[in-house]
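User: Please predict the structure of the protein below. I'd like the answer in structure-token form so I can feed it into my own downstream comparison script.

Assistant: Understood. Taking the following sequence of 77 residues as input:
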Amino acid sequence: MNQFKTAALLGLLSGLPIAVSYWAIGGTSGAFIGLVIAAGMNLGSWFFSEKIALGAYNAQPVDASQAPELYGMVERA
């Protein structure tokens, strides 16, 4: 079910710039420009998703001396 929700969200977020540029610019050339924008947004979010998620939580790297319990959990998994 989560994969369906993800696909639906990506479809909606991809269709929105296509529809807006089709309406604003007009015709198939506007839809093509919207498709390029949507593809750029999807590729950008895919490429930078890790950096965005880590930046949203102000994540910082830790070493084994700072969090030995965490390192123990990760090594066991």
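That's the full token string. The CA atoms of residues 43 and 63 lie 32 Å apart.
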